[in-house]
Each structure stands twice: as structure tokens, then as C-alpha cells.
Amino acid sequence: METITANSSTSLEKESKIIINAPDGAIYLSEFMNELPIGILNKADTGCGATSVVLENNQNTIICCPTRQLIMNKVNQYPMERCSYELLGVIEGISRKNIHDYIVKCREKNQPVKIMVTYDSFHKVKEVIGKDISEYCIIVDEYQELLDIITYRGKAVLNFLNQVEHLPKITYVSATPIPFAYRPKELMGLTEFEINWGKEGRLKPIRRFSYKPYASVVKIIKKHKHGYPLVANNHQVEEYYFFINSVTAIKNIIENAGLSNDEVKVICSDSSTNRRTLGNISISNVSDENKPFTFCTKSVFCGVDFDSESGLIVIVSEGKNRNTMLDIATDIQQIAGRIRNINNPFKNIILHIYNKGISGMTEDNFNRLLYKRIEIAKKKIRAFNELPDDLKVTITESIRLDDNDELAYYDEVKNTVELNDVKISNLKYKFYAVDNVYKNGLSIREAYLRNGCDVATASEYEYVAEKFIEIATKPETLKELIEEYYEERKKLNFGKSNRAIEIEKTKKIIPEAYRELEIEEIRKLGYNSTRIRELVKNKSKKIKEAISKALKNKFIIGERYTNKVAKEIIQSTYDDLFIKAAPKATYLKEHFEIKKVKIQTKTGRVDGIEILKTRGTLMFIHQLTNKYLYAC
């Protein structure tokens, strides 16, 4: 490890870690840096102004962010008294022409280009700038979010990493960088820098195990309203900031605590689903007036600051709801930095209410299941590489339909199927850094210590959270979503309501099923997602055509086949194309004109078929497939 002081220079080697010592008393990076180093920057503290450095210097800069909210937060701040630059936020509705016009305007004003863009939209900016992109400083802000986003925006993240991998002036910035073992391969070999602030400022977690975390929150709220506020560090809490990554849970807590709209501020994604869940509780902006009880979901974990002189952050992790199990190394430290008031006595203290493990899965079971999923992905990769071009669609369709669970990735540009290493890293990271940590209180304590938290100091302020009531926060089932979606489409004469669009975003298989299946078919399948996917896949026009082509290549006109051999050939075809079905020889009549015959074998005459000619209109029969799926 090498250490340098601010503003000094050194010869940097790949994979080295450089410590940059901040001057005594420094609070912001701009006090000793006017640009960010190329590579990975662990700024080691939230709110230290890393984006301000690159937005206010004289370099052409593109800042890539995980969320639209982060962009709007900065765009609304500029120009300002300290900096006259105008920023461009590339979000929905911003066209390539808008980007081009902004760059021209910057040249006319003799101002450096300053663009902020989400990971998804970076390609638009890159296309407009062209080859000059190599001269721009590319800042990937809050890059630890890449691992999380891969689970639901996989294609966008992988495309983004491919687009920026070979750019010469790129800096990945985070206060909580991805641990080395789990980093995407695109980040390997980059020099890592870490800021040493030379100050205490350590996170002081107050850990409290609770069998019913949501009930404990209700109790805290009621005690505060009855004149018994939480007192920690010899100071009284006036405002509570509850970070709970479940809108349903937030709604239940508000109702059970008897809170009114005037007492609460809920900050979450402003979607029709969330509005419907919250009912008469309004969705607020961060800048709205402070209230005694603020509830936040993960949509505001990064890049949003709170102004509070006496607010305490309370993180709630419910073991029955995996979405709320937060990573101590990243999520929790990001949350702890959201209150920026230096004089707030609770600035570096958080109350973490949690219960234990979410599944009880052992490390051996996890590794075995992951190995099985990787092997399935590898089989698809091999099948894609071996199949003729006109049959490869069966593999790409399978990957598309199973996107959330799929560990194979189809690169449309290269027309290749590859192993999704980033998603695999995320699965490992989530198990070892999140799920595993929550199995017992001791591992939670150790996880805090590994990440530089002052648990000893925090223990002085621990208090006993009393049990209250268990709050049911079951998410909507697939059955409920499917029935609602079909009803919504029926109400609008097969059109799409806002609610239908929200359901499509929640479960991608639902609109696919709607296009191919009647609701009665789905009901007969017991709303089983695996069976639904298989039936949708087998009814797909593209797959029907692929199967027909494959069968034509294997059965010869004029030849005779025993029923047993015919079934084996069909099954082999299905296996090659990753089709799950149990075929019978007689179903070849949907693809060929055939006649039943008797065939002499060593053991006697057996039933068989003779292939006369192909059908004029090839149809993939699905009766047997349905029968097979219903029996599963």
C-alpha cells in the first residue's frame, strides 16, 4: 500500500492502492483536489463533494448515475453563486438533438461540457459525442449500485460496462466501494485510491435484535408521541428517519402507529403502485418541510441529503422480507451519511433494528444451487454455439423470458451468449455480505467492526425495544398479479391501464403470458411461474417455426420409424432446443403427412409411422405440451 499527501504525485502501478491523506481539518475534496484520479476512488465518506469537484472544474465531464433522482438533485443546484456552469441532465425526454445543442451552446459560451446521465442512457451521449468521448472525463458515481441493479436491469448494466470499459479517463467513485472479490471484471486492474480524512467520524450503530422489527418501530413512535422520546448520547431525538425498503410495511406501520398525513413524510418512488398502497398518505419530496416521522425506501439511499439538527436514522431489516435486508458495507453506510448537519449529535449514530436470517440456507446449499444454475447457463451457451443460426432463437427467447433468474446473457451486438459474471458476483456478494451476516447477532457485530464501525461506543446508548404486534407485509402473489392484470386489460377492452403497466414492470412473464395464454390455461397450471414460462415459450411463433425446421432436418420423407424411435428423435430435438415436453410419435402429423404402419423388428412386428410428405402449413401442436405441463 502506498501513501501520498494531497496534491503530491507518484508513479502508479496497476492494482496498487494509493492512500491520499486529506489536510488537517478538511471536510470537502475541493479543499485539496481540483480533479479526480483515474481508476477507483474510495472517498471514504458521503457528502464530501466528489461530484462538486468534477462539475466545477474546467474539464469536459460526463457523470453516470444509478438514478434519475440523483441527476435532478444536482441539476437543480446549478448554476449557483459558486459556479456559473449550466448542467445537462440526460433523462427521459432528452433527445440526441438536445445533447448536441447543449454541447454547441457550451462551446459558444466557452464553458466545459457537464453532462449527468443514468447508466441506461449513457449510450445516447456517447453516440452524439463520437470519437471525442476519449477526451472526456467519465465519472461513474455510486458505482456500488451496479451490483444491485444487475438483478433487475441486467442488460442495461452489462451494456454500460461494455461501453465504458476501454475509455481512458474513467473514475469509479463510491464511499462504499464494491469489495475486490465481487468487482466486475471491467474494474479489475484499475488503480484504487482511498481518501484518509484523519478524523474520527466513525459510524456508531446501536444494534437491536427484535423478533418483530416493524412492531418495534410502532412502539418507538407511540412512546415518542406519549412524551417518551428516544434519548441517545445524552441528547433527545426530535425527528426520526426510518429506512424501510418496503412501501407496504411503511403503510402498515403508519396505520398501526395511528399517524396522520401531517405527521409523516414518505419518500419513495412516485409510482401508481406506491400511491395505491399508501392510500391517503402523500408521497413527499426530500425538500418538503420536515416532520417528526420520515419513512424512506432504497430509492433515496444514494445522493439525497436531509437537513436535520436533531434527527436520528433508524434502519429496519425484516428477515421475512429479503428486500429490507441491507448490506452493512454499502447500504447502511450510505444511509448513515444522509443527514449532513455537522451539529447534529446523532449524525454518526444509527439505530439498526433487525431479526435473523431470511432462509437458513447453508453455505454448502448456496454453493450447490449456484453451481447448478451456472451449469444450466453453460449448457445454453454450448447449445447456442452449436445450433444453426435459424434455431438459435430458442436459446435467446429462453434467456429473455427467464431474465431475472438467468445466468446466461445474450449480447445482441456481438450475437453471442455468455456467462453473466456480474450477476454471479452479485449473488455471491448478497449471500456472504447480506444473508449470511443476518444469521445471528454476533455476525452482525463482526460485520460492523470489519467496516470500521465503533460498536463499543454505540453499546453505551443501546436501549431495549419492547415487543408489540406482528405486522403482516406479504407481497402480492403471482396469482393475484395475474388475475388483476387480466381484469385490468378486460376493463379497457384489452388496452393498458396505468396499473397494468406497473404489473408488467413487476413481473415480465405476465404480459408474455397474456399474449399467448387464456386465463383458464394459467389457472390449470396453478399459477406456477415455471410452467407458465414453458407454455408461453412453447407457444411462441418463433419457437414453433424453429421446432418445425429442426424436425424436418431429422425425419426423412419416405422413411419408416417405429413409434419408440420417432419419440426418441422428437425428444432429442426438444432437448437440443431446451423445450420441455413429452412427445408421442403420432403428433408428427402436425408437421408431416404420415400413415400408421407395422414395422418388422428382431422382436416382432411393432407399431410405427411412415413419413409421406411435409405439411403445407407447419403448426406446432401444443395439446401434448399442455397435458405434460398440467401433470408436472
Topology summary:
Elements (H helix, E strand, L loop, with lengths): L1 E4 L11 E5 L17 E4 L7 H7 L4 E5 L2 H8 L12 E3 L5 H14 L4 E5 L3 H8 L7 E5 L3 H5 L4 H11 L5 E5 L17 E5 L7 E6 L3 H13 L5 E2 L2 E2 L2 E5 L3 H11 L6 E4 L4 H7 L14 E4 L14 E7 L10 H9 L12 E6 L8 H24 L6 H9 L6 E4 L4 E4 L1 H15 L5 H10 L4 H5 L18 H14 L6 H9 L2 H8 L2 H6 L4 H11 L1 H14 L5 E3 H14 L15 E10 L2 E11 L8 H9 L1
Parallel strand pairs: 1-2, 2-9, 3-8, 3-9, 4-6, 4-7, 5-6, 7-8, 10-17, 13-15, 13-16, 14-15, 16-17
Antiparallel strand pairs: 11-12, 18-19, 20-22, 21-22
Helix pairs in contact: 3-4, 7-8, 16-17, 18-20, 20-23, 21-22
Structure notes:
This protein has 632 residues and is of the alpha/beta class. It folds into five domains: 2-196, P-loop containing nucleotide triphosphate hydrolases (Rossmann fold), CATH 3.40.50; 204-356 and 440-459, 3-Layer(aba) Sandwich (Rossmann fold), CATH 3.40.50; 363-431; 478-538, no CATH class; 540-631, no CATH class. Helices cover 38% and strands 17% of the residues. A hairpin with a 4-residue loop joins strand 18 and strand 19. The chain starts with a strand and ends with a helix. Mean pLDDT is 79; it is low at 1-15, 463-475 and 617-632.
